[in-house]
Amino acid sequence: SFGSFFGGIEGTMKLRAALFIAFFITTLCAPTFSQKGVEGGGDAEDNEENEPEDFKGVFTRSMRKLQRQVRRRHNHYRKRHNAQPLEADDELDRYAQAWAYYLAKIGKVMHRRSRTYGENIYQGYYDDNHPIRGRDAVDTWYNEINLYDFSKNHRQRGTREFTQMIWKKTSALGTGIARGKNRTYFLVTVYDPRGNIRGKI
């Protein structure tokens, strides 16, 4: 009959309306991820899938020599600020080396999204008269001291590499180095525990 027919249509329409409302509420209440995390301010676990695997090859003698140069130069400056000397750490070296290779591949400076360790990055240029030296990066970072006001007990613009270098609670250092295009090279250092923690300067 017409009554049962229209009754069936009415029931179907009510069911569809109920499903639509349920879908709308579910979508509206679903958890969202902050854009900050996507852009690089999130925690390490938010971005692990984008991190390169640690370097698993063999470090050459020249690479090990440069790592020692970088560590000695750090400790030279840390001594001025009564900070403990940094120890070598092979795991950190491999972590830093993986990122140095990545930067050489893309040809630009970019920090890891992960905040597991502290990190400094230096892009330099080399030729026959200007070989790659570990001290060049470290000296550049330390020269940020000229921008740092020790009377202010908080982070200051343009000094993050310097403050990470002399952070007193940092105890281990890793270093990676890779050549890029057009005689560029990228030197990456990672620090454990990391420095530049808000409210602890």
UniProtKB/TrEMBL annotation:
PANTHER family: CYSTEINE-RICH SECRETORY PROTEIN-RELATED (PTHR10334)
Name of the protein described by the UniProt record: Putative antigen-5
Pfam families assigned: CAP
Signal peptide start and end residues: 1-29
Positions of the SCP domain: 64-199
Keywords: Signal
